[in-house]
Write a structure and sequence with these properties.
The complex is a heterodimer of chains A (316) and B (280). With 316 residues, chain A is an alpha/beta fold. Chain A has 10 helices and 14 strands. Chain A is elongated. Chain B is an all-alpha fold.
């Protein structure tokens, strides 16, 4: 279990994490969700004792990380910033970590097998692809067979195969009773991996709830409708209590964005009025739910830009 | 590569256990230092430069033994035969040791390995202590072997003209002292690296202190210039590599070595303090 209480961290007078509190329970994947610059990486570094907070505490099973006698046997971490010497082989990187924890060298071969890196174990890590590097990072995190795992943007930049691999790994680990905290700025990724979400923006907690609840709570659904008879349909929708906003027509087919009515109801209204529909699409998406939650807290947001999908560089 | 089997999670009791012992940390640091090329290259450079320069200079001197300045040279050789044989080789070779000392810690920062190291040992200072211990043992072994090899090669080359034996007064101490000096100088560089955390900056700083500061302080006028000069790490430290104490020296060979050790200890403590305090 991870308990974060009132955590605050300033960098150069600016709060990266601002009185943040949450708890990560075992046995499920907890998603740590927020736009870039929301303080996710910083929070993880604070939990792991790499940075010191100005206020608050982060406890691992009731103790600060620094007080864990052999921390890698309790907590495995995959940080976004790289932490491998490019001239050192994967095996030697894992070996020195194992030695610090008094783990046998045999454990290095085990985790190399777990992530499928045996064939390149003695190659210099500098030549690894992003996917291989990420596998090496997972191997390092799994070295001490820890009950708690922290993964910072683990799927960033991975190909679909790699994404699937990480996803399945996390689910398997959670089923085994482990505590898993995984950060991401991608709501859709979280929706398929996380059971529970902690949503942050500008270093503050925005909401925490089960993934289902977060999605359901985004009530402001809209429905996109295309019809050659847009004006009449808009009239009927307004009469039924909905709001229809006309969009640009193309080839004589009008576009309406409808709020306040579910898609099924709109279809019924159109049918009763004998109106032909070319399209009827509910627009509520996870990304919208996320944007809704974090709007106003985007660190580098700009109108017209797509901050949610903007790439993230190396941490700090 | 997509299938994964995972061992079942262990209970909370699995997290218990004793703190990693210092021997474990030293084994880890040994794995680190032996598994990168920079260690091999800097030590190879040290060995080649130190023994090569010693052999070259003694051979050149021996082959031009009779010359206009022979008398003055003979006096200086008799005053400090070990310095004559090994001084230039050690003087150049020490740069490789300084570079290695700085690199063992600064590459942890440039590559990000420091994060992995500190996650494994969050108390931090044991990592630095184990690193320094492993570095010191490795460098002491290499530099002592190179020092004695240099001495035997150099003394055999000039043997026909000057007979210097390890059993002569002060000779064994000066030869062994070269290894001690280089080892503590390496720890001094490691400490600077811990403070500065950047390879280029740390190496520049060490070379500035070792090579440039003595020249600058030598320009200082009068008595206190001489005093400052005598207590600089390189000036004080190399006293132990001189065969005899020269009248007028402010420090004895062992006092000089003690001053260098004090420099190293103070900077190491400062580095450890900052390592503990700073965000990694």
């Amino acid at each position: 279990m991870i308990e974060v209480r009132d955590l605050t961290k300033f960098y150069g007078g600016k709060a990266a994490v601002d009185h943040l509190s949450f708890t990560v329970e075992p046995g499920r994947v907890t998603g740590f969700l927020g736009p870039n610059g929301a303080g996710k990486s910083t929070t993880m570094r604070l939990i792991l004792g790499l940075d010191r907070p100005q206020t608050g505490t982060a406890l691992i099973n009731g103790r600060p990380y620094r007080d864990l006698p052999t921390p890698l046997r309790t907590v495995g971490a995959l940080l976004e910033a790289k932490s491998v010497h490019s001239g050192r082989s994967a095996r030697n990187h894992l070996l020195f970590l194992a030695q610090t924890q008094g783990l046998p060298a045999r454990r290095v071969d085990e985790v190399l097998g777990l992530v499928g890196l045996q064939a390149v174990a003695d190659k210099r890590a500098g030549g690894f692809s992003l996917g291989m590097s990420q596998r090496l990072g997972v191997a390092a995190a799994m070295l001490g067979d820890p009950e708690i795992l922290l993964l910072d943007e683990p799927v960033n930049g991975l190909d679909p195969e790699g994404v699937l691999w990480i996803r399945n790994l996390m689910k398997q680990l959670a089923v085994g009773g482990r505590t898993i905290l995984v950060s991401s700025h991608l709501m859709n990724e979280m929706a398929v991996t996380a059971d529970y979400l902690i949503v942050v923006g500008r270093g503050r907690l925005i909401t925490e709830a089960s993934t289902e609840d977060v999605i359901a709570r985004s009530t402001d659904q809209s429905v996109r409708v295309r019809t050659p008879d847009a004006a009449r349909l808009a009239e009927l929708i307004t009469k039924a209590g909905g709001t229809a906003t006309p969009g640009p027509a193309s080839n004589g087919v009008g576009l309406l964005t409808v709020t306040g009515l579910p898609a099924a109801r709109i279809g019924e209204i159109a049918a009763s009025g004998g109106i032909v529909l070319h399209e009827l699409t509910p627009m509520a998406s996870l990304e919208e739910a996320f944007m809704e939650l974090t709007s106003g807290s985007l660190e580098f947001g700009a109108h017209g830009a797509d901050p949610v999908n903007a790439g993230k560089g190396q941490a700090r | 590569m997509t299938t994964t089997s995972v061992a079942p999670a262990r209970g909370p009791s699995g997290s218990a256990g004793r703190r990693a012992g210092f021997v474990n940390l030293m084994r880890a640091e040994w794995t680190k230092i032996r598994s990168v090329r920079s260690t091999v290259w800097t030590l190879a450079a040290f060995i080649v430069v130190t023994i090569g320069i010693t052999a070259l200079l003694t051979w050149l001197t021996a082959s031009h033994w009779t010359g206009p300045h022979a008398a003055a040279r003979d006096n200086s050789i008799l005053a400090d035969p070990v310095g004559f044989i090994m001084g230039a080789g050690v003087g150049l070779g020490q740069l490789a040791i300084c570079v290695l000392g700085a690199l063992v810690i600064t590459t942890e920062y440039s590559t990000g390995v420091i994060r992995a190291s500190l996650l494994a040992v969050p108390r931090r200072i044991p990592v630095l202590a184990a690193k320094a211990a492993v570095f010191a043992v490795l460098v002491l072994v290499v530099t002592e072997i190179v020092a004695f090899c240099s001495f035997f090669i150099g003394s055999s080359i000039v043997h026909a003209h000057v007979a210097v034996s390890l059993s002569d007064s002060g000779v064994a101490r000066a030869v062994a002292g070269a290894g001690l000096y280089l080892t503590v100088l390496g720890l001094f560089a490691l400490s600077i690296g811990t403070l500065i955390r950047h390879t280029a900056g740390a190496i520049s700083a060490v070379i500035g202190i070792v090579l440039v500061l003595p020249i600058l302080s030598g320009l200082l006028p009068g008595n206190w210039g001489a005093h400052i000069n005598a207590y600089l790490p390189e000036q004080a430290g190399t006293l132990i590599t001189h065969t005899h104490e020269v009248s007028g020296d402010l420090l004895s060979p062992w006092q000089g070595f003690g001053v260098l050790c004090l420099w190293a200890v103070l900077l190491f403590a400062a580095g450890a303090f900052l390592l503990q305090r700073r965000d990694a």
